[in-house]
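User: Structure with S-adenosylmethionine, tokens only please.
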Amino acid sequence: MQSLSRPVTSNQSGPHDKLADLVNRHVTSRFLKPITDYNRRAFEDSLQGWDRQMPLILDAGCGVGWSTIQLARAFPDHWVIGVDQSEDRITRQKTIMGEVLPDNFVCVRADLVDFWRLWFDAQLPLARHYLLYQNPWPKAEHVGRRWHGHPIWPTLLGLGGILECRSNWRIYVEELALAVNMLTGRQAAIESWQPTQFLTPFERKYHLSGQMLWRYVVTLEGRQDLHRIG
Ligand SMILES: C[S@@+](CC[C@H](N)C(=O)[O-])C[C@H]1O[C@@H](n2cnc3c(N)ncnc32)[C@H](O)[C@@H]1O
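Assistant:
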């Protein structure tokens, strides 16, 4: 039986009051942590099956890859790349009943912090970008671990495409929407999300536990360097 999960609890009652400072700091400096060879290989591997024509979809933090496979089915003329740092999740068996898997996806194990920078440096276009049920790091002191509070944020956002975030913590999505607006001027609604079929295991778990879910979809411009340096 699926275990129930509790709603997110936090010492924040709204968007973090230091969010704007954090985003401003990250946009005015480059994130210089060296990129590992391991992640470079994973990046190359993720493009092996791509014909260099199909539009690209990135499922960031894809877990076991349910969403990657479903996206590949929903967008059969796209190449869908799922990335997760967990070897256990990435290598978990992708079929339950021996069903035929689509041939337009790949799941690779990599650290997104490197993967996003490699993608940006390769100047690859990005059609759609999914951030599905990422760890919300709900303690206020951990705001810097949320993707929009992390130094990678300007790079992630600079990849462009249609960015979709889903979460069981509304404040996470509110902050992310604010941080998108700060750097791009773009705005989009945050909607209460009632899934009729589940895109990910976490979506399923949260929904079956009776939690509210939130969805935000924003169309960004094409690739652009959002850093403001010098
Ligand atoms: C809460 S799980 C959600 C998984 C999946 N999207 C779902 O909804 O079922 C968050 C996932 O993000 C992955 N993750 C977190 N930080 C990452 C990083 N820096 N690079 C790659 N994956 C990361 C974790 O390994 C984990 O599988």
